[in-house]
């Protein structure tokens, strides 16, 4: 048996105190006068013998109690018998959680400050010949090398809060990589964290008997926290000067209701709206903020709340583009359609181009959000192929058939898009029987369902097949569930099929009130949407319209003085930006091609750090399968001796403390309950 703090053994001299008390017990005896003591002799001898036994037992209890109490402070341990002499040194990998949640406070300051101090104490419990790795959520390349004790202490001081997050599986895997450089050393892994639930991995960590895993939990004071969970617009269409409505969702991660949380909305660093919200405990709440007066171009927005003391999740960034105009291409079979021209040209936001089918510039198709086929008598193979590719790349196509022409060309075109196919032209007056008011084309058009709505009527229409394998969404229907206007998803785009042409010979649709919302909405919702924001540290591909770079030209992402070159991946239809770990801070990043601004991309933390829910020991153990880690609960004092005890062998200080308490308890029981023998004298 050995001792971690042998200096305390000098306190064993205190056992002299109960011995002296026993030897010099100056107890005063009371004299009792008796006429004849001859009859008490036997009683006196027996009582004296019993009292001596009691005194000796009390003395033994005191000596043993004091001895084991001193031994407990000296921290005895039994050295491990399995220590392999070939392991001359130790290699330690110490992970320090530097996620946002480590900004929380406890009696020691911030959790990160305590974690750094604990890491230094762990290192101090080892010899100067041991090697160390410091690891954080950033997984930086410089942390993949082993350090001396002095280098390790300096590296600890450089650790700062980071938006990066890793789970236990990723951390342990990363730590194992550094051990391959030291195959003949004893290997130990330390994880210092508050162990939020988001640190738990999905799969159990494979057992490794050569690895000692120890977890140190840093506890924070209970703190309420309100965070911005997400934002979105009431409409994805942004026009200059229009009224915009932003919906903000806040999350309360505490056990108490949050009252009157102030919300501020900023667009291009100018405050546009102000709100206030009540959020029930462990729930979310929505607020709508309205503003107007935007000009065309990219807009930088952010929402902020006031929520102390945790402020890392009180700002939420987003960006969007207000289009100056919307280009629409109408491909005509003969003359231009007067109804389409009158509708779109009445609004300066729409920029209409009319072309004949033989004069379409295929290279410009992707510049149009909406392409309308107006009574084409036939479709050439080249135009059919280009329009099919246009839809698959995200374009929107609306088809009004030519009821006087052969439908073979339209049939061949639609076969490549997996839609219903034209069968025959029907000349019969009918009135539409149903309308799908839940379709996005009618969003915000009607205040409520109208039981008997006046729907368009037809005189001549094209009957389509009703194939079961299509992904059709019916918008308007004729009797017998016949197609009048339907939508089909094609790749990332869509196609609208009409059963009638836009003339009075076919139907009264061009003059009906429902014609305007159908055409306007189909044009507006065809605007290709860009995400308002992206998750920080997520391996996300950002899809953008096709970007063509000149030789030796690169893209650049900029935020104030920071600049990086993202990874550009090209495919047939679009360009993809992959930033991986290049973006480290929340905020707006401008994407440049030379001096030309292509887009503004906004990044936010994914939000799991905002929920200050911590994993239990059982939940953590479940992540390790059969290879259970050792949980070390740090005391207010240094954990250096605790680590030494763990490294050296079996600790006995708790056993000594328990024995000391037992012997002190025995002393008390002997004093209070050891009955004196009372023997009545027998008189002869």
Describe the structure.
By secondary structure, this protein is α/β, with parallel strands linked by helices. It is built from twelve helices and 35 strands. An eight-stranded mixed beta sheet has the order 17-16-18-19-25-24-23-21, with helices on both faces. It is elongated.
Short description:
The chain is of the alpha/beta class. It has 12 helices and 35 strands. The longest helix has 34 residues, at 41-74.
Q: Which properties best describe this structure?
A:
8-stranded mixed sheet; 22% helix; 5-stranded parallel sheet; elongated; disordered C terminus; 35 strands; alpha/beta; 12 helices
Question: What's the topology here?
Answer:
Elements: E1 2-3, H1 16-23, H2 41-74, E2 76-79, E3 90-96, E4 105-106, E5 109-110, H3 111-124, E6 131-135, H4 149-157, H5 168-179, E7 186-193, E8 211-217, E9 226-233, E10 244-252, E11 258-267, E12 270-279, E13 284-291, E14 297-305, E15 315-322, E16 326-332, H6 338-344, E17 350-356, E18 370-374, H7 381-392, E19 396-400, H8 408-415, E20 422-431, E21 434-435, E22 457-464, E23 472-478, E24 482-490, E25 493-498, H9 515-524, E26 534-535, E27 541-544, E28 555-559, E29 562-564, E30 567-570, E31 575-578, E32 587-593, E33 596-604, H10 617-622, E34 630-632, H11 640-648, E35 649-651, H12 653-673
Parallel strand pairs: 3-6, 3-7, 7-8, 8-34, 16-17, 16-18, 18-19, 19-25, 26-33
Antiparallel strand pairs: 1-2, 2-35, 4-5, 9-10, 10-13, 11-12, 11-14, 14-15, 20-22, 21-23, 23-24, 24-25, 27-31, 28-29, 28-32, 30-31, 32-33
Helix pairs in contact: 1-2, 2-12, 3-4
Work out the helicity level.
10-25%
Characterize the biggest β-sheet.
Answer: 8 strands, mixed
Estimate what percentage of residues fall within beta strands.
25-35%
**What's the overall average pLDDT, rounded?**
85
Number of helices: 12
Strand order of the largest sheet: 17-16-18-19-25-24-23-21
Per DSSP E runs of 2 or more residues, the count of β-strands stands at 35
Instruction: Give unreliable regions as ranges.
Output: 82-87, 676-684
């Amino acid at each position: 048996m050995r001792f971690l703090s042998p200096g305390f053994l000098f306190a064993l001299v205190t056992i002299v105190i109960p011995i002296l008390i026993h030897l010099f017990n100056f107890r005063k005896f009371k004299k009792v006068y008796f006429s004849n003591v001859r009859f008490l002799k036997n009683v006196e001898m027996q009582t004296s013998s019993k009292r001596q036994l009691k005194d000796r037992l009390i003395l033994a209890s005191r000596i043993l109690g004091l001895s084991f109490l001193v031994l407990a402070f000296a921290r005895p341990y039994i050295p491990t018998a399995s220590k392999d002499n070939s392991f001359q040194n130790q290699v330690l990998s110490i992970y320090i959680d530097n996620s946002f949640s480590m900004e929380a406070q406890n009696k020691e300051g911030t959790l990160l400050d305590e974690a750094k101090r604990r890491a230094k104490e762990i290192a101090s419990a080892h010899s100067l010949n041991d090697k160390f790795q410091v690891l954080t959520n950033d997984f930086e390349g410089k942390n993949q090398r082993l350090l001396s004790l002095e280098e390790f202490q300096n590296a600890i001081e450089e650790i700062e809060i980071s938006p990066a997050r890793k789970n236990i599986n990723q951390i342990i895997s990363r730590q194992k990589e550094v051990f391959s450089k030291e195959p003949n050393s004893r290997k130990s892994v330390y994880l210092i964290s508050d162990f939020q639930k988001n640190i738990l991995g999905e799969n159990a960590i494979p057992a490794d008997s050569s690895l000692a895993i120890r977890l140190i939990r840093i506890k924070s004071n209970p703190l309420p926290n309100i965070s911005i969970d997400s934002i979105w617009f009431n409409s994805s269409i942004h026009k200059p000067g229009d009224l915009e409505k932003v919906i903000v969702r806040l999350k309360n991660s505490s056990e108490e209701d949050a009252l009157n949380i102030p919300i501020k909305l900023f667009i291009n660093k100018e405050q546009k709206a102000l709100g206030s919200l009540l959020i029930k405990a462990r729930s979310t709440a929505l607020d709508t903020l309205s503003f107007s007066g935007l000009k065309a171009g990219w807009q930088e927005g952010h929402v902020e709340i006031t929520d102390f003391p945790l402020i890392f999740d009180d700002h939420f960034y987003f960006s969007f583009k207000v289009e100056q105009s919307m280009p629409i291409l109408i491909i005509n079979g003969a003359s231009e359609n007067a109804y389409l021209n009158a509708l779109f040209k009445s609004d300066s936001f729409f920029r209409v181009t009319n072309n004949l089918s033989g004069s379409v510039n295929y290279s410009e198709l992707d510049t149009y959000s909406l392409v309308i086929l107006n009574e084409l008598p036939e479709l050439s193979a080249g135009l059919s192929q280009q329009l099919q590719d246009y839809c698959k790349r995200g374009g929107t196509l609306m088809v009004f058939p030519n009821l006087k022409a052969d439908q073979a060309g339209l049939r061949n075109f639609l076969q490549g898009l997996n839609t219903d196919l034209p069968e025959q032209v029907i000349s019969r007056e009918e009135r539409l029987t149903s309308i799908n008011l839940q379709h996005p084309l009618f969003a915000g058009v009607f205040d409520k369902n109208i039981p008997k709505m006046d729907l368009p009527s037809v005189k001549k229409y094209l009957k389509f097949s009703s194939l079961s394998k299509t992904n059709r969404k019916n918008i308007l229907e004729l009797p017998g569930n016949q197609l009048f206007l339907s939508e089909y998803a094609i790749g990332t785009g869509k196609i609208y099929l009409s059963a009638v042409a836009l003339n009075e010979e076919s139907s009264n649709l061009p003059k009906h009130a429902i014609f305007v919302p159908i055409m306007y909405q189909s044009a507006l919702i065809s605007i290709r949407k860009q995400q308002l924001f992206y998750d920080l540290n997520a391996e996300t591909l950002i899809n953008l319209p096709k970007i063509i770079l000149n030789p030796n030209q690169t893209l650049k992402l900029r935020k104030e003085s920071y600049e990086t070159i993202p990874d550009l991946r090209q495919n047939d239809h679009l360009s993809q930006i992959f930033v991986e770990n290049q973006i480290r801070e929340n905020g707006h990043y401008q994407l440049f091609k030379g001096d030309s601004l292509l887009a503004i991309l906004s990044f936010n933390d994914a939000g799991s750090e905002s929920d200050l829910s911590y994993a239990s020991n059982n939940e953590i153990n479940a992540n390790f399968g059969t290879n259970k880690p050792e949980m070390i609960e740090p005391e207010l004092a240094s954990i250096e001796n605790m680590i030494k005890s763990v490294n050296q062998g079996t600790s006995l200080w708790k056993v000594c403390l328990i024995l000391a308490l037992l012997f002190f308890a025995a002393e008390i029981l002997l004093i209070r309950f050891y009955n004196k023998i009372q023997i009545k004298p027998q008189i002869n």
